[in-house]
């Protein structure tokens, strides 16, 4: 099952990069929102999976355990990623909006420290297990 998820993820990434390259070479003139569809398909799948796990966890645990659930973190990460992608598409597609690049990447700048902290905690926990 894990192998299928990995292959599906790589397949969606491949389609996204093909669309992106063809669009950047100006061979097609699709809307930028269409180019990002493979990324959004992946994000929706991850979001729904995390949401289902939260609901299942809610049925069997107390509220404190639900609030500390790892799936809550995944939901926040996916929402911030989607917000960044939407803002990138808006900047690229609608130049009249005059969005500054630092405004576009605000969700990403919020997401980056969260991911760095999560990876650091995971690395320290795995290092403690090895000792």
Automatic annotation (TrEMBL):
The keyword Transmembrane helix applies. Signal peptide: none annotated. Keywords: Membrane, Transmembrane, Transmembrane helix. Pfam families: Tmemb_185A (PF10269). The chain crosses the membrane at residues 31-52, 73-94, 106-124. InterPro entries: TM_Fragile-X-F-assoc (IPR019396). This is Transmembrane protein 60-like. It comes from Nicrophorus vespilloides. The lineage of its organism: Eukaryota, Metazoa, Ecdysozoa, Arthropoda, Hexapoda.
């Amino acid at each position: 099952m894990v192998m299928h998820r990995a292959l599906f993820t790589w397949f969606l990434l491949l389609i996204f990069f093909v669309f992106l390259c063809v669009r950047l070479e100006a061979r097609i003139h699709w809307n930028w929102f269409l180019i990002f569809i493979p990324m959004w398909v992946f994000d929706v799948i991850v979001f729904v999976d995390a949401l289902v796990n939260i609901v299942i966890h809610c049925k069997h645990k107390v509220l404190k355990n639900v609030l500390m659930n790892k799936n809550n973190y995944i939901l926040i990460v996916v929402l911030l990623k989607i917000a960044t992608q939407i803002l990138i598409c808006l900047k690229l597609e609608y130049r009249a909006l005059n969005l500054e690049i630092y405004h576009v990447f605000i969700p990403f700048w919020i997401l980056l420290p969260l991911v760095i902290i999560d990876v650091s905690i995971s690395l320290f926990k795995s290092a403690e297990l090895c000792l």
